[in-house]
Amino acid sequence: MPELPEVETIVRALQNGGRGSPPLIGRVLQGAELRWQRSLAAPQPDAFLEKIRLQPVKAVARRGKFILIHLNQATLLIHLRMSGDLRLEPATDETGSPVPPAAHDRVIFHFTDGWRLAFNDPRKFGRVWLADDPQAVLNGLGPEPLDESLTAEEFHRRLSRFQRQLKPLLLDQSFIAGLGNIYTDEALHLAGLHPLTPSHLLSSEDAARLLNAIRTVLQEGIRRNGASIDWVYRGGSFQNHFRAYGRSGQPCPECGTPIARRIIGQRSTHFCPACQPLKVAPAGGNSSTS
């Protein structure tokens, strides 16, 4: 948390205005405060502060769970990790007095027009990069799940290359970019696939159904501005429409069977034992369900 829909919601607000703030595009950086230097992954602080000075924001984009702020001569990349958020706000109040930073603001970007962009991160896991070439940071990411160039056939080929359980594989950002715990559970439930099913046992029909389910839950999450389930991210309503995630013991919306919860790959996982049967390979080598 935040996952692709939450990050996309933040990006769209920075692009067009939203969440109570105007657009970020067009503002010119005056400087930055590194209130916790380890939030800066690269380059070194002196080089970072020198290079961003007086650079205008040209565009804002998303890749996986990364926020990309394209400047005139470089790109800021921000990964929110477990608890990060961005606030675009005035640096002074209506009387002209400076507004104190929030308790967990780790990096504050100041703009020449008196606004600032605060990277707030209570758990200190988030990171900021400044790179001439964003691919130097993004190179290991898998395809975007909403990109039409990822066809059902290609997705099936990618699944077939591995003999990994579906849940951990879908969380692997090098396999597909942007999915986290919430939307993986939701997609697997919608597709009727058990989170422990080995990926190579999926048929082409299974793979197509899973890809469609991933896109459906992500698009619905974006439409509802993401999910607000704790203090980390606020403003979305997708949590009111969960099918499986966080609903252990509650009835499955499809069949009424209580939603089960178990730890898979050190992550809490929610699924319906009836609607999501486990597919296993029998002794003869052909897949079956159990």
Automatic annotation (TrEMBL):
Stored PANTHER family: FORMAMIDOPYRIMIDINE-DNA GLYCOSYLASE
Entry keyword set: DNA damage, DNA repair, DNA-binding, Glycosidase, Hydrolase, Lyase, Metal-binding, Multifunctional enzyme, Zinc, Zinc-finger
Family: Belongs to the FPG family.
Source species, domain of life: Bacteria
Gene: mutM
UniProt record, GO biological process: base-excision repair
Keyword DNA damage: yes
Name of the protein this chain belongs to: Bifunctional DNA-formamidopyrimidine glycosylase/DNA-(Apurinic or apyrimidinic site) lyase
Catalytic activity: Hydrolysis of DNA containing ring-opened 7-methylguanine residues, releasing 2,6-diamino-4-hydroxy-5-(N-methyl)formamidopyrimidine; 2'-deoxyribonucleotide-(2'-deoxyribose 5'-phosphate)-2'-deoxyribonucleotide-DNA = a 3'-end 2'-deoxyribonucleotide-(2,3-dehydro-2,3-deoxyribose 5'-phosphate)-DNA + a 5'-end 5'-phospho-2'-deoxyribonucleoside-DNA + H(+)
